């Protein structure tokens, strides 16, 4: 008679496609609202709308999924800070440099972690997936460099284009990050560690 394998790690329920789509929608919604309000009423009403939409989005994520991932949480916190600075000083530069700071805040620990021989991406994601050491190093390097590139792109965008164009590009930046994430799937599959399966007794 076969016995249940009590030594095997407990499997974690993977997010459903519907759940993933809801997360993407909740992350994109504040940016879309920001873009639409900016086109109709200007940057300062758009910043207020972005702040409110971000708060609603975070609340919805917490209610639906019982937790919020570090990236949208950090980004939301900086939205509140830089939106406040934008309104207080009546200077739109603050909200425009916010994405640059967010990207650099994500890039710095990833690249510094590699410098100190500690791929920090592993500490953040090891509960979600198991990779070989080479995989964590490569993934950390790719995402670190990607965030640096995105910071540079944002600086080029807000310094050289109109506010309306920059607002539209913000949505493009998020979509680009999603495409980049999907492009890492072959690397993840290549270096994924399969859980050892014990034969039934």
Describe the structure.
By secondary structure, the chain is mainly α. The chain has one domain. It is 76% helix and 0% strand. The protein is built from 8 helices and no strands. It has helices at residues 17-41, 43-65, 70-89, 93-115, 120-125, 133-160, 163-183, 185-191. Helix 1 (17-41) packs antiparallel against helix 7 and helix 6 (133-160) packs antiparallel against helix 7 (163-183). The chain is globular, with a radius of gyration of 20 Å. The N and C termini lie close together (7 Å). Residues 1-14 and 196-201 have low confidence and may be disordered.
Quick synopsis:
Helices cover 76% and strands 0% of the residues. The protein has 201 residues and is mainly α.
Strands, count: 0
Strand content of the residues, in percent? under 5%
Task: Tell me the structural class.
Answer: mainly alpha
Helix content: over 70%
Give the terminus-to-terminus CA distance.
7 Å
Rounded to an integer, what's the Rg over CA atoms?
Answer: 20 Å
What would the principal axes of the Cα set say about the shape? globular
Overall average residue pLDDT: 84
Q: How many H/I helical runs?
A: 8
Low-confidence stretches: 1-14, 196-201
| Biggest β-sheet description | none
**Total domain modules:** 1
Sketch the topology as an H/E string, one letter per element.
HHHHHHHH
SSE map:
Layout: H1 17-41, H2 43-65, H3 70-89, H4 93-115, H5 120-125, H6 133-160, H7 163-183, H8 185-191
Helix pairs in contact: 1-2, 1-7, 2-3, 3-4, 4-6, 6-7, 6-8
């Amino acid at each position: 008679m076969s016995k249940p394998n009590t030594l095997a790690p407990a499997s974690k329920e993977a997010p459903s496609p519907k759940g993933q789509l809801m997360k993407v929608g909740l992350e994109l919604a504040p940016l879309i609202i920001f873009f639409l309000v900016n086109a109709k009423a200007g940057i300062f009403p758009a910043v207020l709308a972005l702040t409110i939409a971000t708060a609603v989005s975070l609340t919805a994520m917490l209610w639906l999924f019982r937790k919020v991932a570090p990236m949208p949480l950090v980004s939301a916190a900086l939205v509140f800070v830089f939106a406040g600075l934008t309104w207080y000083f009546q200077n739109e530069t603050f909200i425009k440099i916010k994405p640059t700071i967010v990207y650099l805040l994500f890039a710095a620990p990833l690249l510094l972690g590699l410098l100190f021989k500690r791929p920090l991406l592993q500490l953040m994601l090891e509960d979600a997936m198991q990779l070989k050491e080479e995989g964590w190093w490569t993934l950390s390097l790719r995402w670190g460099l990607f965030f640096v590139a995105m910071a540079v792109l944002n600086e080029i965008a807000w310094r050289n284009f109109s506010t309306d164009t920059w607002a539209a590009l913000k949505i493009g930046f998020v979509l680009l990050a999603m495409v980049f994430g999907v492009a890492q799937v072959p690397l993840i599959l290549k270096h994924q560690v399969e859980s050892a399966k014990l034969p039934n007794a």
